[in-house]
Design a protein that fits this description.
single chain, mainly alpha, 10 helices, 76% helix, flat
């Protein structure tokens, strides 16, 4: 995925950072809307309000993509390298709303644009943290936290109708945190989505330890090199 800057200079950096910030804010708004939809609203279909919010946020994502494309030096190459970003920006859930998809399928479709939030988060970290190792560490930790929260939302939405052990979103969040730390939880998933997340979360958590070790070593070695 190509995240190179399409423009240069001070004005170019401000332009790109503005786009990064808009995408990040849009992703956060979408995350808040999904949280409200799953925890408070529920139901077998997503509400019109959530569909509207997702549609607007995806328009922001599309505007971000086409604005970068328009300012790119080699438009054809930029488009081909970033076509995945374009595909992740399409409001599929809104477009497929007339077909009345089942709740679990609609949820999987609805979380596709959140990949843009992860990308925006990486870009924000890139221009906030100068050190490369620190940048990697910060991006990975924030990714783990965000993925854990989204997993808790998906787990709660899929499991709450059928899992008698689940009593509120707090249990789902606790389950996700325990699994990402590889400790495990007594709350057992019964749906396919829950079982898949039960595998993915510990894998993601185990990947954190090498990154954490590399970061600690880089922090320790920096003053040693100076001496």
């Amino acid at each position: 995925m190509d995240t190179t800057r399409p423009v240069s200079g001070t004005s170019g950096r401000r332009y790109v950072r503005t786009l990064d910030l808009l995408s990040f804010i849009g992703g956060i708004v979408l995350l808040v809307a999904l949280s409200e939809e799953i925890i408070e609203v529920g139901g077998i279909r997503f509400s019109r309000g959530f569909l509207t919010i997702q549609f607007v946020v995806c328009l922001v994502f599309l505007l971000d993509f086409f604005a970068r494309w328009a300012s790119a030096g080699h438009k054809g190459r930029y488009f081909l390298r970033n076509i995945l970003i374009l595909l992740l920006s399409i409001p599929y859930l809104t477009l497929l709303a007339p077909f009345e998809l089942p709740r679990d399928v609609a949820l999987l479709v609805g979380i596709v644009p959140f990949a843009r939030l992860f990308l925006a988060l990486f870009l924000i970290v890139r221009w906030l943290v100068e050190n490369r190792t620190g940048r990697l560490f910060a991006a990975y930790v924030l990714t783990v936290v965000l993925f854990t929260y989204i997993s808790a939302l998906v787990f709660y939405d899929c499991e709450v109708p059928v899992n008698r052990q689940l009593d509120g979103f707090g249990d789902a969040l606790w389950w996700a945190c325990m699994n990402v730390t590889t400790v495990g939880a007594a709350l057992l998933p019964v749906t396919t989505a829950g079982k898949v997340l039960c595998v993915l979360l510990p894998v993601l958590g185990m990947m954190l330890f090498p990154v954490f070790t590399a970061y600690i070593l880089s922090v320790y070695r920096a003053p040693v090199k100076k001496e």
